[in-house]
Amino acid sequence: MIWFFDRDGEKLRYEISHDRNNGRYKVVITRPDGSEDIEEVDEPTELIERSVQLMNSLRGEGWRVA
Question: Which of 26, 29, 34, 60 is deepest in the core (most CB within 10 A)?
Answer without folding.
Answer: 29
